[in-house]
Amino acid sequence: MSAFNPIRRNESLPAQVAAALYRISQAVNSMLRVRGEETGFSPAQIQALLFLQYARPGVRTIGGLADRLAIADATASKVADALERKRLIRRKPLAEDKRTITLTLTAEGARKAVSVEDVLADVEAAIASLPEAEQAALQRAAQAIVRRLQAAGYIKVYEMCWNCQFFRREAHPNDPRGPHHCAFVDAPLPDAETYLECPDFVPLEY
């Protein structure tokens, strides 16, 4: 059975929703493509800029970029190469492990990231046009679908620390390394890093 089959879709609410989600994904791809044509970036380069703007430092690597964009490491490396040629990122060793090369936005790269971060504005506007009760119901349903797809290995969810099972707020307020604690990596967290996206995020209600 398939959500692409109009007869099947007409008889099944889940198939209708699946088809709607597929169309939304097409719209998002189109938004990325159009913004890329306006700015001189590929869709993957736009996503890479946003990833490097908001991901926590330890995952800003070729492997982290590949995971975030769901692409091969070799493809992620080519995306990084293109951004490096444009002087929007630079490579440097991770302070904690010199063998790991991190990707960091230059000042111009950070400005470019800010300039494209409203790429999903039309999606947000469409959601904002719904009554608040429908927005809340849509959020719960979308999160449940995301968790199911995450468990199946199709996506990796990046979110900030505050609603994560591993986050311990003000665990050691006088520690100069950071007042909070991440139980996943068993390490202190500076306050600023708690507002960055992390691939090890597990929601409190999971």
Short précis:
By secondary structure, the protein is mostly helical.
Structure report:
By secondary structure, the chain is mainly α. The chain has two domains: 151 residues, Winged helix-like DNA-binding domain superfamily/Winged helix DNA-binding domain (Arc Repressor Mutant, subunit A, Orthogonal Bundle); 48 residues. The protein is 50% helix and 11% strand. It is built from eight helices and five strands. Strand 4 and strand 5 form a beta hairpin. The longest helix is centred in the N-terminal third of the chain and has 27 residues. The chain is globular, with a radius of gyration of 19 Å. The two termini are 30 Å apart. The model has no long low-confidence stretch (mean pLDDT 90).
List the helices and strands and how they pair.
Blueprint: H1 6-11, H2 13-39, H3 43-54, H4 62-69, H5 73-85, E1 89-94, E2 97-105, H6 107-116, H7 121-128, H8 132-151, E3 167-168, E4 180-182, E5 187-189
Antiparallel strand pairs: 1-2, 3-4, 4-5
Helix pairs in contact: 2-3, 3-6, 4-5
Question: What fold name goes in the CATH topology slot of the largest domain?
Answer: Arc Repressor Mutant, subunit A
CATH architecture of the largest domain: Orthogonal Bundle
Give the CA-based shape. Answer: globular
Q: Helix count?
A: 8
Give unreliable regions as ranges. none
Number of domains: 2
Residue share in helix:
40-55%
Distance between the termini: 30 Å
- Report the top-level CATH class of the largest domain: Mainly Alpha
- Percent of residues in beta strands: 5-15%
